[in-house]
Design a protein that fits this description.
CATH class of the largest domain in chain A: Alpha Beta
CATH topology of the largest domain in chain B: Rossmann fold
Distance between the termini of chain A: 62 Å
CATH architecture of the largest domain in chain B: 3-Layer(aba) Sandwich
Strand order of the largest sheet of chain B: 2-1-5-3-4
Helix content of chain B: 10-25%
Number of strands of chain B: 23
Shape of chain B: elongated
Oligomer: heterodimer
Number of domains of chain B: 3
Largest interface: A-B, 22 and 21 residues
Radius of gyration of chain B: 27 Å
Largest sheet of chain A: 3 strands, antiparallel
Strand order of the largest sheet of chain A: 2-3-5
Helix content of chain A: 25-40%
């Protein structure tokens, strides 16, 4: 539904322009003075010395979740690649050595030059293997090839960086890894 | 399991038409078939799992239920095993809520213990259960997560997974070419019926009873048969998976090219499934007259070699014809290639030889005629010799030039054709870098039969169409007819141009075009095969 916003008509002082102009310059001057004398209160940050605070739900660089034994959770089903609107995910699967797991991922490449960071791959994943919660927002590389994240890059993360996430703590090095490994090592035929 | 099953009678063009009432509407259907096929003939698809048109009817899945008006009122019957009778009254889900509910319940029941691992299942995308779920199911999940799915397969294959769930039989090595997943099996017994009735070698069995039924082989035996990969085709779920295609590609990423296999003179109708210029698998293409829904392992697994060991395309100026010319054609030459060969022979006065050194067997009654020379009937139709390679070997010294097209005479002859090596100018046109290509003075790479458009005449004297799959390893490769016709002076720019030329040599082909030959082929009238 369209909403009509009625603007207040300007009075004659405002219509003279020069006083409004000075008022605007005053605001600029105020901020400039604050930057000189009380810069801690500035609403902007001086990137890259100051880093922005990023929320957990921010869609940043991808990572692949790990099972307690350190293998990627990914089962190479290709749902993320099917959902990807930018066609930047390339997956090849193969048979897993673990008898309980049928299929494992052999190649998992995400081309971050093509990626639009929409998060549909994360939504599509049936085993919660793919996440975008690394909070890594800057990508700087020398060649185009380096922008392609391979499987080894995607599983290279530290559980200590995700202290509040129980699923991340299951991975090797996490606080819940030992407990999870005991469950993981159940009878296998 | 010594049950006797009937093969379903399929409707033909000559079926008598009878009037039945579907949802109280009078329709004319083929009268000598079952209800499922009759409804299909009028455009009503009935979901089914265990029924297969070329397997005996077993009627165990109960998915194809319809209501039929009988002496005791309207009863639910399975349409796959109910013969059509004139005047019968049938009700489908379009009018009957009872049928709809019954199918839905059957579908739900079938999925109760079927694992939900579609994302990693190779059948996902072409799975009968998925299709039926969309058609007849759409149940809300009533499974209680605390109980989970139940595993009722072979007790020896049970295990407990990381979530504490009882599972089993995910990767049973049932034979050299096939893995069995017992969790996914819905016991439709299509594979058992295939091995029993079609392959004629009862290697698979249903073991145990009722809910505990599972598919197995005899103790110590393996599923090993020339046609065993067909069980992966008939399997409605992902229970039987072929090792060669397992996890290679998700099926919805494959493109399909309908063509005809040129490794046997029956010319089995096939789908070539390819993606990114690579052939991933070969599937049978249903043709009731030729191979029904079956192809042999030899035919099927050959597709993995099509892209390997190929000859490169070279400049055509390398081919020089000197002195007396002999042309040796192989069974993989299409009618178009033969037309070009004939044109070249007329132009240069060359003598044409044809045939194969491979062993010619006998038909197995399923999808092989046993004759490795695929287009033998086409040779006869075009008036070319189809079995005089021995003659050529004897008279090799007469010729100064030999052009060998699609025929590995040295490799297959095992010494029988070594006399050809003495001919000074040996030109080999072939797809593969085989032994014949190695002894050639000029080895000229051409397109494989999977990459060309054309026609072939099979051992039943049916002309069938080949279509080109875009899988040529090199874009510069040309079909054999293009190269040969260029040598003859006038190059064919399209396969149909060559086919029209073939019509000049064989009058039965004259009136035909690629549009009048159906995808299932066309029986030739005055052929001499």
């Amino acid at each position: 539904m369209a909403r009509v916003i009625k603007q207040k008509p300007m009075n004659w002082v405002e219509r003279l322009y020069v006083f409004e102009c000075l008022r605007g310059l005053m605001t600029t001057l105020k901020h400039a003075a604050r930057g000189l004398f009380r810069y801690e209160e500035l609403p902007t940050i001086s990137y890259p010395e100051g880093q922005p605070e990023i929320r957990n739900t921010y869609r940043a660089k991808h990572r692949l979740m790990l099972r307690p034994d350190g293998t990627p959770r990914c089962v190479a089903c290709g749902m993320c690649a099917a959902a990807c609107p930018a066609h930047c995910i390339f997956i090849e699967g193969t048979q897993s050595e673990d008898g309980r797991i049928e299929k494992r991922v052999m190649r998992f490449d995400i081309d971050h030059l093509t990626c639009v960071f929409c998060g549909l791959c994360v939504e599509a994943c049936p085993v919660d293997a793919l996440r975008m919660d690394t909070k890594k927002i800057s990508f700087e590389h020398r060649t185009r090839d380096e922008f392609v994240a391979h499987l080894s890059d995607l599983i290279d993360w530290n559980p200590a960086d995700y202290p509040d996430d129980a699923q991340s703590q299951v991975a090797p090095g996490g606080t819940k890894n030992k407990q999870a490994l005991e469950t993981w090592g159940l009878e296998v035929k | 399991m010594s049950n006797y099953y009937n093969m379903p009678k399929l409707p033909t063009e000559n079926s008598p038409k009878v009037e039945i009432f579907v949802d109280d509407k009078a329709v004319m259907v083929p009268g000598d078939t079952n209800l499922l096929e009759a409804l299909k003939a009028v455009g009503i698809e009935t979901p089914h799992v265990c029924y297969h048109p070329y397997l005996p009817v077993s009627g165990n899945c109960r998915q194809c239920l319809v209501e039929q008006e009988g002496p005791r009122g309207r009863m639910l019957v399975i349409s796959c095993y109910t013969p059509v009778a004139p005047g019968m009254k049938v009700y489908t889900p379009a009018s009957s809520a009872r049928v709809k509910n019954a199918r839905k319940a059957t579908q739900e029941f079938m999925l109760v213990n079927h694992p939900l691992d579609c994302p990693i299942c190779d059948k996902a995308g072409e799975c009968t259960l998925q299709e039926n779920y969309m058609e007849a199911g759409q149940n809300e999940g009533r499974m209680r997560p605390e109980y989970g799915k139940n595993y009722h397969g072979n007790p020896e294959h049970q295990f407990i997974d990381a979530k504490g769930q009882l599972r089993g039989g995910k990767r049973v090595d049932i034979g050299p070419r096939i893995f069995l997943d017992e969790e996914r099996c819905v016991q439709c017994d299509r594979c058992v019926r295939f091995m029993r009735s079609i392959a004629g070698d009862e290697q698979l069995q249903l073991a145990a009873r009722a809910d505990h039924t599972y598919i197995t082989t005899f103790p110590g035996e393996k599923l090993d048969h020339e046609y065993d990969l067909c069980v992966t085709d008939v399997c409605p779920t992902g229970a039987m998976t072929a090792k060669y295609f397992r996890f290679q590609k998700r099926v919805w990423l494959l493109s399909h090219t309908p063509t005809v296999s040129m490794d046997d003179s029956l010319g089995a109708n096939i789908w070539l499934d390819h993606a990114d210029g690579k052939i991933y698998r070969m599937m049978p293409r249903c043709n009731p007259e030729v191979n029904r829904s079956w192809i042999s392992n030899t035919t099927r697994l050959a597709c993995l070699e099509f892209g390997k060991n190929r000859l490169p395309a070279i400049d055509m100026s390398a081919i020089k014809l000197e002195g007396k010319v002999a042309i040796v054609a192989g069974g993989e030459c299409t009618i178009e290639d033969l037309a070009a060969i004939k044109m070249l022979a007329e132009k240069t006065g060359a003598e044409v030889f044809g045939g194969t050194f491979k062993k010619v067997g006998s038909p197995d009654g399923i999808a092989m005629s046993g004759d490795p020379m695929a287009n033998r009937a086409g040779f006869k139709l075009m008036g070319l010799a189809d079995d005089n390679l021995a003659d050529l070997a004897k008279r090799a010294s007469e010729f100064q030039t030999v052009i060998i097209v699609n025929n590995d005479v040295i490799g297959e002859g095992k010494g029988a054709a070594d006399a050809l090596k003495k001919i000074p100018n040996r030109i080999v046109l072939g797809a593969f870098d085989n032994e014949t290509a190695k002894m050639a003075t000029v080895a000229f790479g051409i397109n494989h039969w999977s990459e060309v458009q054309g026609t072939m005449v099979n051992s039943l004297n049916m002309i069938q169409k080949l279509n080109a799959a875009p899988t040529a390893p090199d874009a510069n490769l040309q079909p054999a007819y293009a190269v040969l016709s260029a040598l003859a002076g006038t190059q064919f720019t399209s396969a149909f141009e060559a086919f029209k030329k073939a019509g000049e040599y064989a009058s039965v082909l004259a009136g035909l075009s690629y549009d009048t030959i159906k995808s299932s082929g066309k029986l030739l009238e005055g052929g001499n095969a």
